[in-house]
Fold this protein.
Amino acid sequence: MRYPVIESFYSLQGEGAYLGTPAYFIRFGGCNLRCEWCDTKESWQEGIPLVEMEEILKEIPCRRVILTGGEPTLQDLGPLIGALKSRGHEVAIETNGSREIPADWQLDWVAVSPKPESGYRIACRADELKYVVDERLALEDIAFEEVPEGRIYLQIEGGKEASARKAMAWVLENPRLNIRLGIQLHKLLSFR
């Protein structure tokens, strides 16, 4: 198997439930959406080099592996996930949630970041939800019923003050909803 890999790297998880924990990231090319504030626009390009699965598996220095993109569900990740699991890795995926995840993908964690370009539709299982708070997001767009309580994070759009104010107001004005203000540690501390 060969996959369009933009990059792979070892770092800390910068957001969500596993914030600050070590992870090995595999970033795939290709995306079915074109979000204006996307921070991985290189995933939209054609001709991303294909990497052999065995090359991907070579030097993973930690237990947790995160498959991300672009939109990783555009790839046939079943064989890669199986190989990672057979080597003792815990496998997570970060997806926009607009596509189903095949039942045979033995994922340990699914982080979904619903996008306005898909009408905030969620077509897959989710263990946590991360919403970018921009001028389009309404409180009614948040899929509270999709995840256990306390696993919804409101992300600030590109450090914008209006986004931060809106997210903070929602958290403070709706304590029973148990939503959280999410941070992007990797952006605050300038690491990948």
